């Protein structure tokens, strides 16, 4: 991983019309808060010294989930060339939280941004050996089935990524 | 959108069916499939690892299909270890019964685990509401008509992919394996949704329609008892399946209901997680031209994701197991079933020719790259379930040859899908083989005696007369040439055209080729044969400016060059001599291209051997085989691999050249382009001055062989500024456009080509068929590029 990899990741996200910001762990909570449309749901963030903003409900019911406008989850890793974030299916509910609300905010450590899909698969293999499930999410949910390209079908219509820098 | 009609049978019915599709669905399908195709070109172009990825993907599939039985056992162990169930279904009925059973045991609000082996579908439910299923798009479930089976069993089924949902509302079938409702316009969808749901808000725009669908289907997903998905790939070792979508509905169907059923053909199995990589990397590129799809969901179910209860006070994460000692993904409320479908696949695996079909990853690139598909869509170019080039293999394998026979002839063998296919399946070859099998099963035709004298082939008696005639076109051409111009005059009279239409199916609206009294071979002999050619080449060498090579060429006088378009043959001879290369034009046997197009494999095989026997001595003597007609060159470079011993095939392939490619080689070796007939004089040999603008349509097979470039380079070196056509094919592809049932389709495809090139003052085309098609559409002469370049003498 190099600084350049993160730069490349950011350029890919811009091409996908996904918002991207960098922040230190100290500023992360505040930056996430500024990205939210309320009501927001989320899962606990597994990064040291980084907490979800208070306005994020990290213990939502099914109905909270269905009504939320933003979902905040960590990404296990990200792939720079495609602007992909890897979201795990964990018991905390990362998968539905990243999928149901119209806006998804993904938080990824800069050290977890890998260069290409080959490096991504190296990360995957160990996860699968443990029986895990992961989704590669790239950009916004989209369909062209209704006559022209529309974003936000079954999944989020807007995505933001926060890259945690000082790690 | 077309009303569903019975599969067409007679030539008239088939023509009417195609005409109907051209009018009702053609425009919408063309718009979407051709733009996916254009994006595929761009993304393939931008992917430096593309060829490696294709090779890797193919190798993985070859290996996986080879050891399929053991992979089935591996995945069974893996899925069971994860806490799920694997069921191998023999056929559609078996698979459907199993799924109905699972739904029955998991409906009514009960989270009770199903007993997978139970066959009693009348088990009691907790309440009287019909059980509901939400589904994400899966061609495999289309193949087994799962929705019908579930509905018969009293289950409510909701498609959640927007395209599939439109089809479900319209009671229609997919017309494309990736974009199933591609044949609908937005206006038609608006009409359909308004009529069916009478929504409160407006559903005019794509955004409004999408929002309505999202809200409506979101509710169905939250309420559903069971989620059914397909699987793009299944990793045997870990029991992981990959679901590739852009909308996100597969993810929702898989994780929202407590029970997930994934249905996949057994051929979807690949050995390990690392084997997923090339497929994940290439599938969206080939399907829609995206670098990667929005969601590649790799689930090893039952997943750890919490089950989602709505209208409940319990937080979703409370369903997780708190017992640290449990298996990592043991969520007690989740139930998972993987249904692996055989339905003919294990037999396909044993079939040397159909086996390759199992490598297919269902990306639809063959459909998008196909001019005929772009014009009529999968309701014309498709069988019971599958559509596009690869559908012949699928339909023959899973539904039987009759389903493949309905549409197999729509593959013209143009090969444009060959470069598109991410697993390098030789789709035209599968189509040829199945066509041959269909031919052999047909009833003997009624006009046998009329065609008998014209058909010195190696085929059985059941073959369709038109196919037999076109497969033996060289014999007819030889006779017509010998009796020209009378034969031309007779053939063009109304009674003769009526007879040709009735017996051979040759559309009377189509211009017939005009046969020359003097064949190219005769012309060449009359002007002094090889001795005269050597003399001319020597004189040219003495004058200077010729290539610095000691070559001698054998020009292959294919049927059209020899009897119809003799001018392009003469132009080729004059050009090569001018550049210092002596030429021979022997009377060689036919290449086998014509019978191959008709699916007459035995005849083509026999002709290939005869051709090799006749050319072997020239190849021994180090002579180059120069070919004018790209489809014959394609036979030498591609299909001969199937007919000749490896060493013989390689000799023919390595020593045969398309004529402009050959000229390009001579120019590269020092020949002076100004010896040829050039365009804007100032531009010759100087890259800066503007050349004379012309439009160039390369032949489809020539493009597949990467030979468009050399022709363009030669034209540019000779002072022209060519623009190329982007339409995949001219719509003729040999005999295709002559056939009455395909005349309108041929003209529709041809019109698209003509409108691209019509503004150019000069239009040139490499193939005979392409040239003929453009000449009738543009009503002017469309020469071969070599005719433009040849010195006028």
Automatic annotation (TrEMBL), chain A:
Domain LUD: 60-163
Annotated InterPro entries: FTHF_cligase-like_sf, LUD_dom, NagB/RpiA_transferase-like
Pfam family, one: LUD_dom
Gene3D superfamilies xrefs: NagB/RpiA/CoA transferase-like
Protein name per Swiss-Prot or TrEMBL: L-lactate dehydrogenase complex protein LldG
UniProtKB/TrEMBL annotation, chain B:
Molecular-function annotations in GO: 4 iron, 4 sulfur cluster binding; oxidoreductase activity
Any coiled-coil regions, as ranges: none
Region of interest called Disordered, as start-end residue ranges on this chain: 25-49, 106-127, 298-335
GO biological process: lactate metabolic process
Record key words, sorted: 4Fe-4S, Electron transport, Iron, Iron-sulfur, Metal-binding, Repeat, Transport
Residue stretches of biased makeup (Polar residues): 107-125
Pfam families on file: Fer4_8, LUD_dom
Domain 4Fe-4S ferredoxin-type as annotated: residue spans: 350-381, 403-430
InterPro entries (alphabetical): 4Fe4S_Fe-S-bd (IPR017896), 4Fe4S_Fe_S_CS (IPR017900), FTHF_cligase-like_sf (IPR024185), Helical_ferredxn (IPR009051), LUD_dom (IPR003741), LutB/LldF (IPR004452), NagB/RpiA_transferase-like (IPR037171)
Signal peptide: none
PANTHER family per UniProt: LACTATE UTILIZATION PROTEIN B
Name of the protein in its database record: (4Fe-4S)-binding protein
Protein species of origin: Natronorubrum daqingense
Phylogenetic classification of the source organism: Archaea, Methanobacteriati, Methanobacteriota, Stenosarchaea group, Halobacteria
